Give the backbone structure.
Amino acid sequence: MNSSSAGEVSISVKLQNITTQLREIQDLLTLQEQIDPRILTDFRDAVNRVRNTAWALEQYANSKTAEADPTPVLNLLAGERVRVAYQLLRLVQTDLTNPRIQFQKGQLLQLQKVTEELAHQLRALVGE
């Protein structure tokens, strides 16, 4: 078996295992009365990102098989990343105002640097 086939088998097994785990989590969620809404939101967002990524990859693979232009799928995937980034940044803003959350200065400096670079790129793209 070549490395590509081994990787495909590995990801297939992992996907089957995760699917089983997600079904178990679904059952547990229906039984729980007290779940931290923030944790539930993070979980839901993560599941949505995986679902959207899986769909986009499926569409991309189909476009390659059909020898179609994959650009619409790539545009959709990029748009999804923008949507997720917006949601995450809003959550970070909330976290920054929460006195119970302690951030490491290095993490904040890295975030500051990348957001400044992103802001510069966005200004260039939207014409400001």
